[in-house]
Amino acid sequence: MNASRVLVLNSGSSSVKYQLLDMRDRSRLAVGLVERIGEGTSRLTHSPAGGADREWTGPVADHDAALKAMAAELDRDGLGIDSPELAAIGHRVVHGGIRFSEPTVVDDEVMAEIERLIPVAPLHNPANLTGIRTARALRPDLPQVAVFDTAFHTTMPESAARYAIDVETADAYRIRRYGFHGTSHAYVSRETARLLGREPEEVNVIVLHLGNGASASAVRGGRCVDTSMGLTPLEGLVMGTRSGDVDPAVIFHLTRVAGMSADEIDTLLNKRSGLIGLCGDNDMREIRRRIDAGDERARLAFDIYVHRLRKYIGAYCAVLGRVDAIAFTAGVGENAAPVREAAVAGLEGLGPEVDPVLNAARADGPRLISPPGARVAVAVVPTDEEMEIATQTYALVSDSSDLT
């Protein structure tokens, strides 16, 4: 196909992030964000390649208005959404269940299935659907492609994906481990193999996606075999505001002893736990500043965060049997050298080591921070979820020979 551009949309409940990419040279033509949708103080920020950033403030009533505002900004740069060079629109969809293991062209049946999954992704799938509906209305002639956060993890064996609860109940209510951040884990595991000069099929990687939300995955030969998030993004690592792993009986205890409702416990575990619950801050930079100032509460929060990380690294070493690399990514993983150093400290017997000088050095691209000759390489690999969505979208709607 001659059209080579892909518009990537990430529709949240009150925001739309977008990027327009040209897949011939994998360049970004424009990047933008519409936020505080539905409020009187909505804001659009738009950054065209080679041009000056623009910002607009005013009321944006809904997602339809947000995407029309986005389209107007793209028009100003000669990159209109009506351009014949636009091959497809790729949408981030958080939950695809077990049905969607690949990027999928959206039709009414796909929309209905995404809607049926709302009970297991109540915060995300409704907003994702709204973005798709609006984009379909704007360009009904154009392929709309859903790229699912859960898709990369559908290769997990049943022994990793199943919870040990009554099978009939689990199947009736779709209770299983789905995993999230899949586009990031897919991208970073491939880029790690590239960094090592090997094919993804030859490499076993532990990927640590550490942002405000955090997840780990065990990737064997390019396929996920385990991941830390489960039915929802609450399970697993300690996160910015989420607890990660807790004894399920904590919920019963809080119901019986504290009289808390299901909604109150949901809020506690998702919004008032993790780092912010432990020390009142969920910004790792501020936590490190407090630690340097002698704050013991911040130190304890950091130690709990790192302890959970080490547990998952060790567990995934056991799951994989052989580990070629550990890759840190996302905001904390890419920028917090003390987290990387602490997470690997004491694990030398398993193979990973961190070189303090390489770890402390600032750099933009993928890089190794382990000493030469380490049995398990340790890497920092910046994630690029939008590029991953665009790549999967374009591959689906075009011949692979069109990619350069």
Q: Report the C-alpha radius of gyration, rounded.
A: 22 Å
Report the total helices.
Answer: 15
Which consecutive residue ranges, at least 5 long each, have pLDDT under 50? Answer: 400-404
Name the helix and strand elements from N-terminus to C-terminus, one letter apiece.
EEEEEHEEHHEHHHEEEHHHHHEHHHEEH
Strand order of the largest sheet: 5-4-3-2-1-6-8-7
Question: What's the story with the biggest beta sheet?
Answer: 8 strands, mixed
Please, could you describe this protein's structure?
- With 404 residues, this protein is an alpha/beta fold.
- It contains 15 helices and 14 strands.
- A hairpin with an 8-residue loop joins strand 13 and strand 14.
- The radius of gyration is 22 Å and the shape is globular.
- Mean pLDDT is 93; it is low at 400-404.
What is the strand and helix layout of this fold?
Elements: E1 5-11, E2 15-22, E3 27-35, E4 43-48, E5 54-57, H1 63-76, E6 86-93, E7 104-105, H2 108-116, H3 125-138, E8 144-148, H4 158-161, H5 167-172, H6 182-195, E9 204-210, E10 214-220, E11 223-227, H7 249-257, H8 262-271, H9 274-279, H10 284-292, H11 296-320, E12 325-329, H12 330-335, H13 337-344, H14 356-360, E13 367-368, E14 377-380, H15 385-397
Parallel strand pairs: 1-6, 6-8, 9-12, 12-14
Antiparallel strand pairs: 1-2, 2-3, 3-4, 4-5, 7-8, 9-10, 10-11, 13-14
Produce a short descriptive summary:
With 404 residues, the protein is α/β, with parallel strands linked by helices. Helices cover 38% and strands 20% of the residues. α1 packs across α3, α10 crosses α11 and α11 (296-320) crosses α13.
